[in-house]
# Entry
Amino acid sequence: MKHFVFCKKIMRLAPIVLFTIIVACHPVRQASQPTPETKTLEILAVNDMHAAIDNFPRFAFMVDSLRALYPDMLLVSAGDNQTGNPVNDQYREKGMPMIALMDAVKFDVSAVGNHEFDSKPQGFAKNTQSATFDFVGTNTVLPEGGGYHIKPYSIISTKNGIRIVFVSLLNINEGGIPDCHPDNVKGFSFRDPYATAKEFLYLADSAHVFVFLNHMGFEEDVALAGQLPAGKADLIIGGHSHTRVDKEQLHNGILITQAERKLKYATLIKLTLKDNKVETKTMQLLTVGNKGKERLDIRAMVNQFSNNPQLKETIAEATADFTSYEQLGYLMVDGIRAAAGADIALANPGGVRIDHLDKGNVSVMDIYTMDPFGNEMVLFKLTGHELKALHLAAFTIDDSSAIYPSGIKSKYLLTEKGVLTDIQFFTTDGNPLEMDKTYTVVMNNYMASVYKYDHKDKGQGLFRTTAEGIIDYLRNLKKIPDYREEKRVELVKTGK
# Structure
């Protein structure tokens, strides 16, 4: 009642006084704070697909299913889309089946891996022109007038307003080029990836998410993360080392992923942003493979590409399973030694691309899968001393792996830490090789170009590929013997 009387009295006061009293009589309301806006970004990442086109129908179905859940999801590759399947590698336009399939599934960005160059300069240029997605090579300097559609970086804005920058660093070897045939990168130059990374960090200032889409290897990506200023990069999607990363790897606050090779897996990456700043980063490794529901139009494309009777021709019969790279390496060098009529044949460990071949019929496709690079056979006249110099030089280049020989056996002497101190050679019946004698030695022209060692003979190209030599050898051999007990290389730690 008293409150009612008081209110009647104040109604008679002047308006300005009345307003002041009314305001004072009401509790003051705090200004509402804007709620931070939360957004999510999903990225599906693969790497080192190596022309695994048989997995694409299943992969395409998975991509479509994920896009139904995450409409703004980006699809990216960390490079080495090419090389590994004769259907793709022996196609009339080398590498074009992979480009067509990646276009059909709607990739957004791909790194340039070392095996992108296997299509040779003109083929690689055409592949980049045909792609509807961006190829990115940040530390790759392009030849003038080559027609390569490769960007130093790619910027994508999603429909929900997230701006993402992709830069891509390619590993270079001691020769200053990627791990490919030197002829395939003539006119290109390659900058130091670590220095290049720091030069392009300025792009982070104009983006909400900064991604390295690298083809350097997992350990190299970890090293890069440790060198970057805190908070500049959010994510490294890697390739090259074929590492299977199946749980979160955070280094210096940066999430690092990789999904092995050949479309066995894909990585689903989820980032949460608040006020356009990345707050959380998670990943999930998904199994792809070639079993399960498929996208039918992609299956039809794969079947059309695979319709090549020449590749299906049976050329020999394997009398036993091959179960390692080493066993298949020995088969390869036996083939090229016979095809070249040489005393000795050598194959670099990276030149053998499969580690298993089933007992039974062996086809042309099997050989091109084993040896997909199209490298020419080259014949040298080398002394035993020159042969030793070659092996010593190769050991470092081939990541401390031994060369596969035919016509000789070799013993590598190593310290406890794996440092190579000497190599000894023996004939096939176990006698020491005569080091002053000159031998005819056949190898692929990648080895001839990359291994730097002292030798007099410049070599003679035989105008036939190593794969063609192996195919001819097997056609004549018909029955392939059992290699499971074959040992031609011995690595011995001396303890020094």
